[in-house]
């Protein structure tokens, strides 16, 4: 008889019920050990970021690269009985590899900013891998500072802070689910969505808009006189994404409130043809720290990613089959890319 894997084995419960992702297909905890992320992989990331800086400059854009830190990187003291070395966090090691590199000017040190603020209000949800509003706001301000753009200081006054019972992507790995009380992250904004690709629209029509991950594409416009008139394109993942899910805070919502035009493409790779058409002022590459273990493919096309994702997510809905199994994941999927059914980390 084949035993059924325990999903909770991917999660470590630390002090005061804080949950940490430690395994999964990205082998998260191993990335903090030796050898951890290989020197060859870090070198290839250095070359990749340098290339992005040069190519974006050739298009008249400024490139920035940001890793959403793992909870282990920020709150190591809350995982006090777990054997790992936070000093070998992939974000910290990659930052060192960028020293004296042209890519260093693109680097946004979110790990440093989060570690400096870890004694304040919680930056992550206890039962989730993602940020609270405070964590997302810190990331937003840190990235804007690297852009030389001042943040909107009135966002907090526009927040809807209703507290809700919540079980995050880590809490749902337990039976029964681990829950917490978490504040909502929505806020009033003049930003509006002016484009969504077919993948996103079809998933929304099925009532599964939150399941539209890799390949999703949305564009936002903001006519507020206080909006920065420039254009930002984000290539990111669930820490940015196309919509905010209370109580998860996402970067795209905050950036759409700040800039006249924001494009979000769910991809770790860069669609250079898209950038050639759009001609943005800023390009942000955002990804979870644990994704450093994989290099993204080159020369991706968002339309092709969306097509592959639609085949995977929607064919089962159309045929009545189990839509988790009929097709392999898109080639741009990191090892920890969510399955079609949800955003559970891997």
Automatic annotation (TrEMBL):
Residues 11-172 form the AlgX/AlgJ SGNH hydrolase-like domain. Residues 334-346 have a biased composition (Low complexity). It comes from the Bacteria. Pfam families: ALGX. Residues 319-346 are annotated as: Disordered. Keywords: Alginate biosynthesis, Periplasm, Signal, Transferase. The keyword Signal applies. Pathway: Glycan biosynthesis; alginate biosynthesis. Its main location: periplasm. InterPro entries: ALGX/ALGJ_SGNH-like. It is found in: Periplasm. Coiled coil: none annotated. This is AlgX/AlgJ SGNH hydrolase-like domain-containing protein. It comes from Methylorubrum rhodesianum.
């Amino acid at each position: 008889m084949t035993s059924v894997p325990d999903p909770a084995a991917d999660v470590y419960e630390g002090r005061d019920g804080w949950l940490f992702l430690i395994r999964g297909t990205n082998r998260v905890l191993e990335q903090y050990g030796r050898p951890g992320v290989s020197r060859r992989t870090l070198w290839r990331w250095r070359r990749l970021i340098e290339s992005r800086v040069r190519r974006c400059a050739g298009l008249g854009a400024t490139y920035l690269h940001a890793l959403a830190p793992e909870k282990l990187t920020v709150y190591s003291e809350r995982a006090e009985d777990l054997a790992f070395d936070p000093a070998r966090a992939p974000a910290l090691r990659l930052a060192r590899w960028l020293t004296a590199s042209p890519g260093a000017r693109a680097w946004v040190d979110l790990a440093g900013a989060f570690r400096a603020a870890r004694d304040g209000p919680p930056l992550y949800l206890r039962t989730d891998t993602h940020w609270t509003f405070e964590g997302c706001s810190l990331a937003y301000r840190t990235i804007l500072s690297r852009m030389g753009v001042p943040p909107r200081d009135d966002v907090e006054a526009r927040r809807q802070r209703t507290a809700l019972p919540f079980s995050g992507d880590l809490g749902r790995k337990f039976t029964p689910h681990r829950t917490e009380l978490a504040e909502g992250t929505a806020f009033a904004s003049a930003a509006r969505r002016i484009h969504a690709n077919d993948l996103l629209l079809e998933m929304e029509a099925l009532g599964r808009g939150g399941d539209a991950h890799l390949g999703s594409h949305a564009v936002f416009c903001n006519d507020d006189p206080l909006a920065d008139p420039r254009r930002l394109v984000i290539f990111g993942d669930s820490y940015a994404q196309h919509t905010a899910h209370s109580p998860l805070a996402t970067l795209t919502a905050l950036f759409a409130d700040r800039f006249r035009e924001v494009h979000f493409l769910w991809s770790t790779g860069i669609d250079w043809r898209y950038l050639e058409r759009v001609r943005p002022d800023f390009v942000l590459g955002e990804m979870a720290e644990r994704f450093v273990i994989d290099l993204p493919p080159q020369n991706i096309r968002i339309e092709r990613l969306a097509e592959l994702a639609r085949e995977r997510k929607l064919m089962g809905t159309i045929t009545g089959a189990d839509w988790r199994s009929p097709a392999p994941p898109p080639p741009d999927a990191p090892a920890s890319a969510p399955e079609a059914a949800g955003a559970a980390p891997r």
